[in-house]
Amino acid sequence: MQYNIALLKGDGIGPEIVDSAVAVLERIGAKFGHDFRFTPYLIGGCAIDAVGMPLPQETVDGCLASDSVLLGAVGGPKWDHLSGEQRPEKALLGIRAALGLYTNLRPAKLFPALRGASPLRADLVSAGFDIMIVRELTGGIYFGDRGYRTGRYGEEAFDTEAYSVHEIERIGRAAFEIAMKRSRRLTSVDKANVLETSRLWRKTMHRLAEEYPEVAYQDLFVDNAAMQLVRNPQQFDVIVTSNMFGDILSDEASQLTGSIGMLASASLGETTRGMYEPIHGSAPDIAGQNKANPIATILSAAMMLRYAFGLTDEAKCIEDAVDAVLAAGFRTADLIGDSDAACCSCTEMTAEILKAIG
Ligand code: NAD
User: pTM of the predicted model, to two decimals?
Assistant: First the structure.
């Protein structure tokens, strides 16, 4: 089977980590008999340098014509002087909007070999955890009416949150479908004791839950969820929540796993295409030095196989290889911290993962 993948390498460490993920996908293709074809497109600062804009139309068209999209990262000090609309980061919002990506998946998985890197006490993480946070990405308070006005005490600012049944239903359905592919446990996080949008969210989720009797469903208030995440992360499997709650809870959960260089993500819409990228940025401080941890991008490629192409065994093969390499003690610099222990480069880590895939 042939799969056409648009590559948006971007800036900083983007080209290094995307090259690592491509090497892994090629190895998976050879092992399982798939034909992955890659077409690079410009995005971010490199696009500004080449054609004067962060998101050329050719990039949008190329992504729309592809079966899936793999993104590195964009931005860097070279373009920091530019105004908002012209900045490399503007391309991220543009490509998400152009591809209609309203579901953001951020898995927070603690690899057994990295238990010591978690800020949680050893007894809390001894059994590990593997949480999938499903965050609504294109609605809620980040997109509601906002502004300034004169209030009772003079100048005041306001932001409003609105969610339609349609928006809640489509993110809710995505979360139930993901729960069905995992251990069939779903927690919906809201603030229904205070917010009207959360009450509609909860009512809509309950209606959807009736369609998925196989899924063990529970509601949790967001303040309780934030506490439960650090008290006992193992209790969660899939969490679905609104844009702002998901933004905050996913950062909290990600930090429980250790390094930012480990965390993959997927942004999904109505089609299976999606866009897959590490959650970290372009790391200009280590760009071009072969020091970047490629694992977040490699795990993002695994998510692409699972969610865009339905290649579950192939995705698991990548995840198992990462697990094995970490268990064997291989570490990039970010996983070692200030220790003097020997670490491997981006290409060495990639080579070990390729070896583990076989
Ligand atoms: P960053 O994530 O790029 O880096 C933060 C720290 O983490 C740095 O010390 C960096 O070296 C380290 N780091 C990040 N990824 C790593 C990896 N894979 N391996 C090893 N170490 C890694 O965040 P920042 O420094 O705040 O931002 C740098 C640039 O990236 C900015 O221009 C920012 O706007 C942009 N950015 C882009 C995205 C994106 O493209 N999705 C996301 C966040 C930030």
Answer: 0.87
